[in-house]
Design goal:
The complex is a heterodimer of chains A (81) and B (141).
Chain A: H1 2-17, H2 35-49, H3 64-77
Chain B: E1 2-5, E2 8-16, H1 30-47, H2 52-59, E3 61-62, E4 65-72, E5 81-91, E6 96-104, E7 110-118, E8 120-122, E9 128-129, H3 133-139
Antiparallel strand pairs in B: 1-2, 2-5, 3-8, 4-7, 5-6, 6-7, 8-9
The chains are: A mainly alpha (81), B alpha+beta (141).
Chain lengths: 81, 141
């Protein structure tokens, strides 16, 4: 389940950024993923997982691992439904 | 004039081509269309209740253009009256994509079509941030 989540997030990041390979810990900026693309990635994650990521977290979503950790946190806090 | 396009608010405003807008060939220079498109976005926002100047001043945010595409179909000339229709084509937390169609008012000839994408930044820092939800909603996103 957890692995599925990470792979799904990898797919979302790859699709939105049009970058084929998204390593776990490489900084998004090194992959050419700029801050605007970062917001698009967050928007797609919000749509997919029905969560809301606050503005203050955007700066922390700097790699796939960080995105995975944050999404796990918000999914755990989301009301069941 | 406020109407709808694809179920979203669409604003059409009149533009009289000035002599200063034209080039040595006697037609509107391509650079002028970007001014018209900017006017179209500002007027659309005003029509849905968002005064852009107030938006900038009170929220400390700006909407810079990050991408623009124009398709020219026919020239416009000095003193012609044009009608520019502007609406939101696509909107998300990351960007607003405005679409527009410019027509000659006298015969409804389509002169150009365009899409302009804007992001949202904090001012004066220029840091990218999310498009405010209320703005997206007012534009029909």
């Amino acid at each position: 389940m957890n692995r599925d989540l990470k792979e799904n997030l990898r797919r979302i990041v790859a699709e939105v950024s049009e970058v084929d390979e998204i390593p776990d810990d490489t900084d998004f900026r090194e992959l050419g993923i700029d801050s605007m693309m970062g917001i698009e990635i967050v928007a797609e994650i919000e749509r997919t997982y029905k969560i809301s990521v606050p503005e203050s977290e955007l700066k922390n979503m700097t790699s796939l691992t960080r995105v995975h950790e944050l999404v796990q946190t918000y999914l755990a806090a989301a009301p069941a439904g | 004039m406020l109407g709808t396009r694809d179920g979203r608010p669409a604003y059409t405003h009149a533009i009289r081509v000035g002599y200063v807008d034209t080039d040595a060939a006697g037609v509107v220079h391509h650079s002028q269309y970007f001014r018209y498109l900017e006017q179209g976005r500002v007027e659309l926002m005003r029509a849905v209740g968002v005064d852009y100047r107030t938006f900038e001043l009170t929220r400390g945010l700006g909407l810079p253009v990050v991408e623009a595409r124009l398709r020219y179909r026919a020239p416009a000339r000095f003193d012609e009256l044009l009608a520019l229709e502007t609406w939101l084509h696509e909107g998300s937390r990351a960007k607003l994509v405005f679409a527009s169609a410019l027509r000659r008012a006298s015969d409804d000839t389509l002169l150009h079509e365009a899409t302009v994408t804007v992001a949202c930044v904090t001012m004066p820092a220029g840091a990218i941030c999310s498009i405010p939800l209320d703005l997206r909603e007012k534009l029909g996103a």
